[in-house]
């Protein structure tokens, strides 16, 4: 008889646990919605509608939306601008120094009688070395470029 009592007690406990689990699942799937208090709408008989006219203008776009380049219309110049001539400092191209292990070249130039070692893109006395080879240099001074040829050794 004792075994049957234990079985009945355990059966009641199992049914209680599974009932609680089932109740929690069903309650979670169908939650109770809270009541919504809707405010009362007061109707106003006399009201004005402010209408603002939206004005706009279409402007020409100077940028290409696909390429991102700027396109400007060609303008006709009515007068020719006089270009100022830049007075260059006395510059001489004396030679080039090159290391066999590196591709970097160092050029020897003389500016106002002072010898300087200059690399490509470097600036000395506001004169910038743009490019060069063993025979000639291209220099920029006050936004004007000049090519200087190497003088032969005497």
Walk me through the structure:
This protein is of the alpha+beta class and 154 residues long. It is built from one helix and seven strands; from the N terminus they run H-E-E-E-E-E-E-E. The chain has one helix at residues 2-29; strands at residues 91-98, 105-111, 114-119, 123-124, 127-132, 136-141, 144-149. The strands form two sheets. A four-stranded antiparallel β-sheet has the order 4-5-6-7, with no helix packed on it. A three-stranded antiparallel β-sheet has the order 1-2-3, with no helix packed on it. A hairpin with a 6-residue loop joins strand 1 (91-98) and strand 2 (105-111). It is elongated. The chain starts with a helix and ends in a 5-residue tail after the last strand. The mean pLDDT is 82.
Structural class designation: alpha+beta
**Terminal Cα span:** 131 Å
| Total of helices | 1
Q: β content, as a range?
A: 25-35%
Can you give the helix content as a percent range?
10-25%
Rg, Cα atoms, Å: 45 Å
Instruction: Give the SSE string.
Output: HEEEEEEE
Mean pLDDT: 82
Major sheet summary line: 4 strands, antiparallel
Task: Using the alpha-carbon principal axes, give the shape.
Answer: elongated
Number of strands: 7
Main sheet: strand order? 4-5-6-7
What ranges have pLDDT less than 50 throughout 5 or more consecutive residues?
Answer: none
Features:
27% strand; 4-stranded antiparallel β-sheet; alpha+beta
What can be said about this structure in brief?
The chain is an alpha+beta fold and 154 residues long. It is built from 1 helix and 7 strands.
């Amino acid at each position: 008889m004792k075994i049957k009592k234990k079985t009945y007690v355990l059966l009641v406990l199992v049914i209680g646990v599974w009932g609680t689990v089932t109740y929690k699942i069903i309650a979670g799937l169908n939650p109770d919605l809270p009541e919504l208090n809707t405010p009362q709408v007061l109707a106003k008989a006399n009201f004005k509608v402010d209408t603002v006219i939206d004005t706009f203008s279409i402007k020409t776009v100077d940028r290409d939306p696909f390429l991102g380049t700027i396109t400007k219309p060609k303008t006709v110049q009515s007068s020719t601008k006089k270009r100022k001539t830049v007075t260059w400092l006395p510059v001489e191209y004396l030679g080039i120094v090159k290391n066999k292990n590196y591709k970097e070249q160092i050029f020897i130039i003389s500016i106002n009688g002072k010898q300087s070692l200059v690399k490509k893109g470097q600036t000395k006395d506001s004169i910038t070395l743009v490019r060069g080879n063993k025979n000639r240099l291209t220099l920029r001074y006050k936004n004007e470029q000049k090519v200087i040829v190497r003088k032969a050794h005497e």
